[in-house]
Amino acid sequence: MIKIEGLHKSFGKLEVLKGIDKQISQGEVVAVIGPSGSGKSTFLRCINKLEEPTKGSVLIEGQDIMGRNVNINNLRERVGMVFQHFNLFPHKSVLENLTLAPMKVKSGKKDEVKEKALKLLERVGLSDKATAYPNQLSGGQKQRIAIARALAMDPHIILFDEPTSALDPEMVREVLDVMRDLASEGMTMVIVTHEMGFAKNVANRVMFMDQGMVVEDGEPAKVFENPTSERTKEFLDKVLNH
Amino acid sequence: MYLQTLADIFLKDSRYMYILGGLKFSIGVTLFATVIGVVWGTMLAVMRLSHFYPFKSMGGKIAKLNPLEGFSLAYVDIVRGTPAVVQLMILANIIFVGSLRHTPILVVAGIAFGLNSGAYVAEIIRAGIEGLPKGQMEAARALGMSYPTAMKEIIIPQGIKKILPALVSEFISLLKETSIVGFIGGVDLLRSANIITSQTYRGVEPLLAVGVIYLILTSLFTKFMRKVEGGLKVSD
Q1: Closest chain B residue to A93 measured between Cα atoms?
Q2: Given an 8 Å threshold on Cβ–Cβ distance, is A150 in contact with B143?
Q3: How far apart (Å, rounded) are the C-alpha atoms in residues A233 and A225?
Q4: Could B144 and A87 be called an inter-chain contact, meaning their C-beta atoms sit closer than 8 Å?
Q5: Do the bridges between strand A79-82 and strand A157-161 make them parallel or antiparallel, or are there none, so unpaired?
Q6: Which residues is B135 bridged to in the sheet?
Q7: How confident is the model at residue B160, as a pLDDT?
Q8: Chain B residue with minimal CA distance to A99?
Q9: A109 close to B148: Cβ distance less than 8 angstroms
Q10: How far off is chain B from A191, nearest CA to CA, in Å?
Q11: Chain A residues with CB inside 8 Å of B158's CB?
């Protein structure tokens, strides 16, 4: 579903990604963990070309995001994204946040799009907030709306960029619950996260990144219990045993 | 009686008509210039923010040259760096000559002030757009919106709200600045005061009258725009 080959990304002289080759298949829930500055977010942002790879290729369902004839906007319709800071549109109501892209990008019918948006709001447990504006919501509610907004485009894949890092601790749960539901329904997800518990219990694959490389890649149990690289052991020791 | 004097100054021989004519002229030039200024300023801002690199394939330094950005930068520097009165006189005395010399002064002045104001408006718009969180554009693009759609639906509506106070200031400056059109023969508010002075030998009253009119105009406008701003704040 996603095929990444020889992915390099540099910002000026700083080489952030140093050659990543990975494949992610349909229905996989991949947690990407690792220390700050290891390139996790950049890796994620290269998948939908929010960052332009310096070298290499990223194929989404067979289409190269770098391809000359590939319409990146069409591609992004199928790849949803949820951001650390939610990035809801503050000048639009919650419902409009959900309906804007389906209407403008997919030219959906207003009634159908709206009906679907209301269903999604119900699914994330925020039906009563349809007419509210983002600034009237808590962080956890904002992030659930952001997930619903991504879902409104019927994506095949959703990328999560540290979705719970900007939340108060008591709000992390409600967002993770929504993500857990999504995972159990078979959505393909790539999640950059610091929630080790979530990575362990919900993901079915964990990648550990360090210094621009994927150092460890495997089932959660294997990565967490029997990491092969020294660097992974060190990192897990720090974050798990404190 | 002083009231009698005032009546002599303004009412006798229908001299207030000069002021009414001047008022009409000043407002006309300002409106004309505002339209040009906002349209031209938006274009300059878009050029400045564009990612247009036609020489990318040639490599080296020229690959990083964005001619649109360069033009916009140079334009803003030149216009902001020279007095409006100089620009006005250049336009009237060097450009609008020959077959163009019958262009109405209102049009010449409107263009001159519009081109001038465009430089300031461009900077206001650019600052407003660059001041928005980067995540807004990213979220819009990640949802599959094209750059123009994202601009239209997400960036510009939020930008306008931010820049409105600065644009109001610019409009007020523009209104006052039009008082230099006397230099190219336009009869605006200030010039009408001068005409009355030359007929009545009273220098203070016509000037005060004109000053008060400017103040009333700007206050009305400010009041109106505060209402508009208040209306836009709903979602904040």
Answers
A1: B235
A2: yes
A3: 9
A4: no
A5: parallel
A6: none
A7: 85
A8: B143
A9: no
A10: 16
A11: 89-91
Identify the closest residue of chain A to B159 by CA–CA distance: A91
- The structure tokens listed for B124 are 């206001």
B15-40 tens-digit pLDDT = 899 999 999 999 999 999 999 999 99
DSSP designation for B35: H
Domains of chain B: 2-235 (1.10.3720.10)
Q: Is pLDDT of B193 > 60?
A: yes
Q: Chain A: give the shortest CA distance to residue B44, in Å.
A: 25
**Which residue in chain A has the smallest CA separation from B160?**
A91
Those residues of chain B whose CB sits closer than 8 Å to some CB in chain A are 133, 135-136, 138-146, 149, 153-154, 157-158, 161, 234-236
Model pTM? 0.81
Contacts of residue B154 in chain A, CB cutoff 8 Å?
89
Q: How far is CA B14 from CA B9, B11, B23, B110, B174, in A?
A: 9, 5, 15, 28, 29
Contact indicator for A227, A65 with CB cutoff of 8 Å: no
- DSSP secondary structure, chain A, as one string: -EEEEEEEEEETTEEEEEEEEEEE-TT-EEEEE--TTSSHHHHHHHHTTSS--SEEEEEETTEETT-TT--HHHHHHTEEEE-TT----TTS-HHHHHHHHHHHHH---HHHHHHHHHHHHHHTT-GGGTTS-GGGS-HHHHHHHHHHHHHTT--SEEEEESTTTTS-HHHHHHHHHHHHHHHHTT-EEEEE-S-HHHHHHT-SEEEEEETTEEEEEE-HHHHHHS--SHHHHHHHHHHH--
For residue A191, give both structure tokens. Answer: 């999640």
* Per-residue pLDDT tens digits for A47-102: 999 999 999 999 999 999 988 888 999 999 999 999 999 999 999 999 999 999 99
* Closest-approach residue (CA) in chain B for A155: B143
Q: What is this model's ipTM? A: 0.92
Q: What is the pLDDT of residue B14?
A: 86
Contacts of A106 in chain B (CB under 8 A): 144
> Nearest-CA distance from B141 to chain A in Å?
7
Pick from B143, B152, B156 the residue to mutate for testing the A interface (most A CBs within 10 Å).
B143
Measured between alpha carbons, how far is A240 from B172 in angstroms, rounded to an integer? 62
Contacts of A150 in chain B (CB under 8 A): 143
